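Let us work through a complete example step by step.
Step 1: write down the sequence.
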Amino acid sequence: MLKATLANNLMKYRLRPISALGLDCSAIPENFNFLTAQEEFSKERSYVSEAKEYLSRTWAAMEEEDSGIQDIHDSEIVPECVMQAGRHELEIVFLGTGSSQPSKYRNVSGIYLHLFERGGILLDCGEGTYAQLKRRYGSDGADDILRNLKCIWISHIHADHHAGLPRLLSARKRLIVDKPLLVIGPKQLRGFLNAYEMVEELGMVFLDCSQTTIAAEAAAKPLEMDRCTMSGGDESLSNLPSEAVARSESDKLMQENGIHLQQGVDIAGRRILNCILRSMGLRNLRSVHVVHCHNAYGIVLESDPIPMDDGSLREGWKVVYSGDTRPCPALVDASKGATVLIHEATFDDSKPMEAIAKNHSITKEAIEVGMTAGVYRIILTHFSQRYPKIPVLSGSYTNKTCIAFDMMSVNIADLPLLPRLLPAFKMLFQDEMSLEDEDDQESYVPDSADSLLF
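Step 2: predict the structure and record it as tokens.
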């Protein structure tokens, strides 16, 4: 009778020498026990428990009814839009926080602004963004996100900011056949998407970033209608059968769709955008020229005043995203009074020359932009992949600053808590920080994607 043996990982069957013929189970690992591993890890890294306790105390203090948000920073004025914010108002989800190319711990750029029942907006869409949505929300949840996605905004044409766009649009097209999605981006992106649509229809309407600047607003004001006339008053793209229908009126005035502002005002494209903003309770979406490559932009999003239970209105929030840029006055002006500034911090403070050469920002510069503009919170992102887990935490960090991680979700109601996470981050990643201080990883490959200026 044959004898059967259940195989295990690393089990061996030795044929030679004859004296060792048979099964060798010496290398089979013991069964993994989560509680045992957690206990051993806690003994070796006692500071992990300290970080856990610190975060628990901080969170509990914030939830105490008699403490109030204002007491978290006694010397700091908390904006009304944060003080009275509900948890279903705005959530910022970081799908990718690295630069150049995906790594084990950080995917490339992608930020989802979740407005809950009002839908969402995606800021940048590097490769793997669709997969990150699935990891964050699950397969069915990611499909729901795509169904409710109102707009995608792309900062510039570098691959780590737009290469995931066709995959995401294709997935959405399979879910929603007859509802085109608005894509806002630099003019080079239009050529890229048009070429891709020769292979596969993406179901999108394109609007050039230049059509969402202050200059475009001034030029379009006399031409735009005072009310949304699309879809019989339905302020969305839900009833648009195709891009051709969406742009039929503007085609009477011009031959091209998705044109740059230098060629004229894209009236139909701007009307579509305005209808989307109204349906989402947003006052404004404005693109700002920044210093990186040709046609690189940052973005400003402002919400309408929020109605209160007593019938009064309170101030809305303002979110600014820098894209990739050197510190520039235009972004400082656009960020004044912002609730949140999401700014790139590709390099640490010891590498100013690399930042200048590649038109990026160091940590200190990114924070100074926010401090000069008087923003409430600064969240740093787009870290060089030479910092795989955590960037260098220098003395330039302030009580307004936090760093972003992939899958990190920031609810507007939790903004007062953000800077208090830094001490916990330092404890959790102190080994990695020590290695970065000792070795600057000279074998690191330069950010090739960022060296291409189109």
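Step 3: interpret the result. Confidence is low (pLDDT under 50) at residues 226-255, 441-454.
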